[in-house]
Amino acid sequence: MSVVGTILDGKKGPETFPPESLGRLELSEVIDLYKSVGRRNIDYFAWIHDVYSWITLPCVAFDWKRALSEDKTKLTVFDILADDLADNRTTRSYSLLQDLADIPWQESARTAETSEYLAVGRRIWEDSLSSVSCYPRFKEFERVFYFDLRQVLSSMMYSSLANTDGIENPIETSFYSSYGCLVEVAIDMDLMCSPAFDMKELGLVRTVACLAQKVAHVGNMMTTYPSEVLEGDVSSPIISLALRKGLIRHNELGDASTVPKLSKLEWVFKSRAHSYIRKVADCEKEIRSVNLRGFSDFLTELIGKFEGSRSLR
Question: How many domains does the chain have?
Answer without folding.
Answer: 1
